[in-house]
Amino acid sequence: MLKKSFATVIGLAAAVSFLFSACDRKKLNIQSTIYVDDERDGAKIILGFSQIGTESSWRTENTRSVFEAAAEQGIQVLYDDAQQKQTNQLKAIRSFIVYRVDVIAFVPIVEDGWDNVLREAKEARIPVIVVDRKIKTQDESLYAGFIGEDGIEEGRKAARFLLQKYSDSTKKLNVLELRGTDYSSMAKERSAGFREVLLQDPRFCIVKSVSGDFLRSRGKEIISNIFAKEGSLSWENSSLDIIFSHNDAMSLGALDTLQLYGVNAGRDVTIVSIDGEKDAVAALREGKINCIVECNPRLGPELIKLVKTAANRNTIPRVTYVDGRVYSENDDFSLTQAVGF
Ligand code: GYE
């Protein structure tokens, strides 16, 4: 089948921002370079990759990992950064279909609303791989498979750390939850897994749960608002003992404000986070964060294996999970390899 030139497609869909030439590894700076490749190399697999944005270091590392793995395997990437908007993702995926890429991979910012575009991809016989976050669909055959993390298990791990940390305590323990993006599978799963394990123990009570959209700025703001309203780190006159944050970016934002108000983070309030980015790992070592449930953003090599399989019209596993460790104040840091990304 004759494939269209990128120049044609760009006229049809401005959403596609970037074509990456896999053979030129020196140009791995994905933030600032725009590639337009009119000479399509028919032998190469072309992957259309729709990423949700750059909301955290996790996300930036995730994108980098996909590009690096694609470059290593000689796969061209047609890339779009959706800047946190589902409508941009839908446009990008439609552009990939027009361009007739070999495989589409996308990170769904929210769970719902994908069936129509996936039906279009299926009609065009383009396999789709769902990356990192899950979707809800009426028809599971609309995508080839999912690769990512098990958010429920991550939430459970965070709760297990707390049960263990407070195993000798008799007091009531109030938790503030900083949730990720509303309607995203990741925020839902992390909340669900956390509650499933934590609330078996009646001492724990989640007194407040707010969405911080996985953003550092929001983590900062949420804690500032609490101080503005309550005058201390408390909610409706009960002090907050624990902050469970769905990602490091929000935890680091929370730390910024706590420091401003002279709260001794890690001691006066226990902080449990998810991801494992460098700055958070440093805060863990300094005792300001008590536990980090690792979530590995480096999905690139596994994803690219799946892309090659799907491009050759072979079946890929329905679900490929990537596992992570738990880093905590109980570790001997001279022994752990916790460095972060
Ligand atoms: O934890 C967060 C990011 O979906 C696993 O999204 C991902 C989350 C990650 O922005 O930092």
TrEMBL record:
GO terms for cellular component: cell envelope. Keywords: Signal. InterPro entries: Peripla_BP_I, SBP_2_dom. Residues 1-22 form the signal peptide. PROSITE patterns: PROKAR_LIPOPROTEIN. Pfam families: Peripla_BP_4. It is found in: Cell envelope. GO terms for molecular function: carbohydrate binding. Its main location: other. Residues 48-308 form the Periplasmic binding protein domain. Belongs to the bacterial solute-binding protein 2 family. This is ABC transporter substrate-binding protein.
